[in-house]
Amino acid sequence: MGFRRAGSCPPALASPSIVVPAPEPFGDFHSNHFYEPAPSPSSAFPSTPSFPPTPSFPPTPIPLSAFPVTPSSAFAPPPPPAFIPTPSSVASPVAGSPQENAQQARRGKKGPPRKEFVERYADRPYQPPPAIKRIQRHFTRQKKIEVLDYLIYHQVPVASGGEQARRSRMYIPEPTKVNGQEAQFPKPGFRHPTYDEAEKQFKIPRSTIATWWKDKDKILHSK
């Protein structure tokens, strides 16, 4: 047997029915750096689904005829309200295109209406038409009547009294009836104009004037 020191007690034997808990670590449970959580049993094995996966199929296209057709008028915007002109909108001029502005500038301002021929020359004595300086190719009925009146009613003074030359030589048209009346014979010392004189006066070929004289009744009575 060995010797014991003085003052020492023999070790106490624990009862087999008493469980001594382990001492808790210092500080918080999560702040202890010696603590390592044990892995969960579910994380050690891969998760498997409890039922088989559903197979996926591509979407089936739907034809356009299956959708209801809506008329385009249902989506049309409402018509604008009727425009009511105001005094300011009526009086304000609207700027036109450059061509219209140029035409208005060329026309100028509209003046008073022109007077009729009778009103303009009623207070003036009759003046014979001026001599034509160029030959014309197309003539109106008014021009033909003017030439025929010149041959019928105009009188030319005779140079040396009496008609010395024959009518055929001077190309003087024979007297004729105009509008049912006998043509006026020239006064003494005067004669009717010739085709040559009418040609110089109106610048119309003599042959054309002679043709008009032959058709004078048709020309004078036509409308």
TrEMBL record:
Where in the sequence does UniProt note compositional bias of the Low complexity kind?
A: 85-98
Q: Where is this region: Disordered?
A: 1-63, 78-115
- Per UniProt, the ranges with Pro residues bias are 49-62
Organism's domain of life? Eukaryota
Q: What is this protein called?
A: Uncharacterized protein
Q: Which organism is it from?
A: Diplogelasinospora grovesii
